[in-house]
Write a structure and sequence with these properties.
Layout lengths: L1 H15 L21 E8 L5 E5 L11 H13 L6 E6 L2 E3 L2 E3 L2 E4 L17 H13 L5 E2 L3 E4 L34 E7 L10 E5 L6 E8 L7 E5 L6 E8 L5 E7 L3 H15 L3 E2 L3 E4 L4 H4 L4 E7 L3 H11 L2 H14 L6 H16 L20 H12 L4 H7 L22 E8 L2 E9 L5 E9 L5 H19 L1
Parallel strand pairs: 5-7, 6-8, 7-15, 8-16, 11-13
Antiparallel strand pairs: 1-2, 1-20, 3-6, 3-17, 4-5, 9-10, 9-14, 12-13, 18-19, 19-20
Length: about 475
């Protein structure tokens, strides 16, 4: 059945996106400061299916974070806009005279927003813990003669995708997905910029401090204008992480953010402390299980409280606007888990490739994660533009368009072109890596046409600001020639 559907979709895509239009004369993104760069571009009029522009459109390039557009759309199709992650609290044993003679069991559902107040106020640790406290008190419990069990078994075979780079995996954007995520799986490392002798800057504060983790600083002050060049190194579940590189000169404190590879342990310590502060002691502390022993598996559980994440639609908007890798990888894994498919990232990413084939007929892409952080990901600009076209034909396209980053931040376009009015209705997802800057999304022109555009740019030798200006010059030229 899937082969038949893919074939029919391929036919509809070939019919829907005409190849009859040639590249517009004199229009070329790979010119000026991008003359020597690797550039792949495809622009399609989504209403008529007309190919408006193509440069190296079939060359496989690194999509970077524009891959999140495909991951988000697949999650929306397979899970539904109203889907929510559910983190549950239950207990074992009996309650006698206000004393629980048993354990609390806090089970993760892979929610990437749990404890992350930046996504929504209801996700903040204080809100999560308040809900748990209310649930415990509703059972008349004032003391727990047992332990808090944190169940982190959902994705126990892997947390960090195997194709991610060593220099990425211990920095905040390289945090791996767990069955139990907490506070974005990140923590802050703060330095006091007091030294001026070129020596190593000590760590002043770690917040929140993952239990048992030692952070070793090899950080120095960099030259003026160098920016943040500090990177954190350390493997999953290691008890030490090393920070190397430089931080910018200046006065006062400077904070960088690192990946917490054991979020369940941090959550357990914080919750036990919170309960004690509110008069409920957990006498045996907490324990994280990544494989449940038989005695707990066979214990009768009584539900106490369920924390629900924001709805999936809201979560996708966050992911696309903030380019949140953790959310993207969590959505990919959840899609696979709900369908009974192996959740290991490289296997799940192949299913993402299958989803692309079903919607575009493009077999040339190869994916190794869902966020675009893997440098091994490859797809063509034409494949991405065709995928954007497939979203246009869905019944919920209007709400999907609202989830894409809006074009009110034009990355310096006002200084690049004489008239930015044609850009005020852009919905573009960017993708950035070392020597890579991509754009994929939708552009509505002054004449009402809606365009799907994919521009993959790498190996450039100009600054990113110069590249951005060149890109928006290109869009302006495209709009004015179309008019």
């Amino acid at each position: 059945m899937r082969i038949l559907i893919s074939f029919l979709l391929l036919l509809s895509n070939v019919a829907g996106f005409s190849q009859r239009a040639a590249t517009q004369p004199g229009l070329k993104l790979a010119s000026g400061p991008l003359k020597g760069a690797s550039v792949g571009v495809c622009v399609i009029d989504l209403g008529t299916g007309e190919l408006l522009h193509a440069e190296n459109a079939d060359v496989r390039m690194v999509p970077a974070s524009t891959l999140k557009v495909i991951t988000g759309r697949m999650a929306l199709d397979r899970l539904g806009a109203d889907f929510r992650f559910r983190t549950t609290l239950a207990y074992t044993g009996q309650i006698e005279a206000g004393i629980l003679k048993g354990d609390l069991v806090w089970s993760g559902d892979g929610d990437p927003t749990l404890g992350n107040e930046k996504v929504a106020s209801g996700c903040a640790p204080s809100s999560v813990f308040a809900g748990i406290l209310e649930g415990i008190r509703s059972f008349g419990i004032s003391e727990i003669h047992g332990k808090l069990i944190i169940v982190d078994t959902l994705y126990c075979e892997e947390d960090v995708p195997r194709s991610w780079l060593w220099e990425d995996i211990s920095n905040y954007y390289g945090a791996g997905v767990h069955g139990f995520n907490f506070m974005g799986n990140r923590y802050g490392i703060t330095f006091a910029r007091s030294r001026e002798d070129g020596g190593i800057i000590p760590v002043e504060e770690i917040r929140p401090h993952p239990p048992g983790l030692q952070v070793i600083s090899k950080v120095r002050i960099g030259p003026e204008g160098s920016g943040d060049q500090a990177y954190v190194f350390g493997g999953p579940f290691a008890d030490k992480q090393v920070v190397r590189g430089t931080i910018p000169p200046g006065k006062g404190r400077f904070t960088i953010y690192a990946a917490n590879h054991d979020p369940a342990t941090l959550a357990g310590e914080m919750l036990v402390g919170f309960l004690l502060e509110n008069g409920i002691e957990v006498t045996a502390g907490y324990h994280v299980f990544r494989e449940l022993p038989p005695d707990i598996q066979n214990s009768g559980l009584t539900g106490m409280h369920t924390h629900e994440s924001p709805a999936l639609g809201e979560m996708i908007s966050w992911m696309l606007s903030k380019s949140d890798n953790l959310v993207a990888e969590a959505l990919l894994k959840k899609c696979m888990q709900m369908e009974g498919i192996n959740t290991r990232t490289d296997i799940a990413a192949k299913e993402l490739g299958t989803y692309l084939v079903e919607h575009t007929g493009d077999h040339s892409a190869s994916f190794f994660d869902g966020s675009g952080l893997s440098p091994m990901n490859r797809m063509s600009a034409r494949g991405m533009a065709r995928f954007l076209g497939s979203t246009y034909r869905k019944s919920d396209f209007s709400s999907w368009l609202d989830k894409m980053p809006a074009g009110n931040e034009l990355f310096g376009a006002a200084n690049a072109i004489p008239d930015i009015s044609c850009l005020m209705h852009t919905h573009l997802k960017t993708g950035s890596m070392t020597n890579v800057l991509n754009y994929s999304g939708y552009l509505r022109t002054r004449d009402g046409s809606l365009l799907g555009i994919a521009a993959f740019i790498s190996d450039f030798d100009c600054t990113r600001n110069v590249l951005r200006k060149r890109f928006f010059e290109f869009i302006y030229q495209l709009c004015t020639q179309k008019e």
